[in-house]
Amino acid sequence: MKLLAIFGGTFDPVHLGHLSVAWEAAELLDAEVRLLPAGMPPHRDAPVASAAQRVAILRVALRGQSRLTLDTRELDRAGPSFTIDTLHELRAEQGERPLVLLIGADAFANLATWHRWRELFQAAHIGVLSRPGACVALPDELEREVAGRRVADTASLRALPSGKVIELAVTPLEISATRIRELLAAGRDPRYLLPGGLFDDPGLLAPYRH
Ligand SMILES: Nc1ncnc2c1ncn2[C@@H]1O[C@H](COP(=O)(O)OP(=O)(O)OP(=O)(O)O)[C@@H](O)[C@H]1O
Ligand SMILES: O=C(O)c1ccc[n+]([C@@H]2O[C@H](COP(=O)([O-])O)[C@@H](O)[C@H]2O)c1
Fold it and tell me: Which keywords are on file for this protein (predicted)?
């Protein structure tokens, strides 16, 4: 069965750093990758743009291809967007289909701070997006949970609905939404850090202009 992977973020706004790693993960896993904008991200301040504005940007950013799709369920839920709740909803919809939670290597190192974090391993596989050759040390309690779950090939993910951890070597781009918001607020046009289509409609990036 085709893998279903999810990639969550504040996406305030989505940029080419997000899209390129999501695309590479989709190719490496031969998966559909759903981008899930967080309604109320659990570990940070509220986004600058509204949910509707971030979705409008995502829709334009995802135009013209079908591997990366948009899932807005976290925006429709009240309260913090806990990933475990999202995975339980997806499991109820998808049955035994293998699910892969995509997480950047730095965020993965902090996984033990997430809500009901141990349950994440029962709910999905985890795909850790890493710089080729990089090695991020994990805190002991996380390492103990991950040891024994690591696999190197995607066939192992296809064989089970959840429970494995795979490292996915992707090409990181030094782009952050924080920097993009700074540039837009300063009246600049970070044209080659964002999907080009966003500049065709000046209203899309207006929430970040001052
Ligand atoms: N340039 C990038 N390359 C690869 N992954 C990224 C990049 N920027 C962010 N990510 C990852 O994408 C996910 C969503 O990121 P998020 O929406 O917080 O973007 P951000 O650019 O880090 O935003 P901000 O600067 O506002 O914190 C996170 O898992 C984050 O680690
Ligand atoms: O579930 C949690 O406790 C949890 C804690 C921190 C982050 N997350 C999710 O991780 C994704 C990336 O978060 P962020 O803050 O880097 O945009 C986003 O989908 C968040 O909902 C989830």
Answer: ATP-binding, NAD, Nucleotide-binding, Nucleotidyltransferase, Pyridine nucleotide biosynthesis, Transferase
